[in-house]
Amino acid sequence: MEHDHLIACHECDALFQKPRLGRRRTARCPRCGAILYGSASGRLEGITAMTMAALITFLIAQGFPIVELETNGITSQTSLIGAIVALWNEDMQIVAVMVLCSTFLFPLTELTALLYLLIPIRAGIVPPGFNQVLRAIQFVRPWGMIEVFMLGVLVTIVKMVSLARVIPEAAMFAFGALTLMFVVVVTFDPRTLWDVAESLGVLEARRERHAREGEGDDGDADQAGRDTGKPGVDGPAAPHQG
């Protein structure tokens, strides 16, 4: 077996020959049942659109207040960044940093990194730093906790209803929509992009090799054309029998 067509299970380290998958198919390890990789065919367009929509919704959620509290004629609003600043000013710097990373920094990094990879790959181009960006996505993904933050906000609202009038603002609905979008984004396994990038690299190498071979055979092809009275054009290749 060629080493380029081998894959190791990340759970039990079993080594298998890597077959080409059909549309929306996944390969599982027969020893432990872990998912080895999946087919990205037909999914790149949908996941790119969903990631773009999630990024726009994320920016809306950060730029508007989450809730408005009104009690005894006094009104106050707060956003995610305002809540983080309040935690910092209350001498809870560790909590503030954790909230900043899990609800702002890591989700933003995942969305922007996914778009950085998906948009060029859909155009048939492997972007610079592909390996490093893909590893960064796999690193930050477990630490993004938008859904946990949303659950905490809902619990807080339920408790505050008895004390003040709670008015949901635009960021509340944006975070709700963002939670659902992240469910879709997280279902996309970024490891499938390795296969897409590998296939693009193979195609590019074939084009370069054919171009070099074509330049070397120009003289022979022209001579063959003069000898036979026909252009020196190769016929269509016979279909490969798998």
From TrEMBL:
Q: Which UniProt keywords apply?
A: Membrane, Transmembrane, Transmembrane helix
- Show the stretches that span the lipid bilayer: 47-67, 96-119, 139-158, 170-188
Q: Which InterPro entries match?
A: PqiA-like
Pfam name, any one: PqiA
- Please give the residue ranges the record annotates as the region Disordered: 207-242
Name assigned to this protein:
Paraquat-inducible protein A
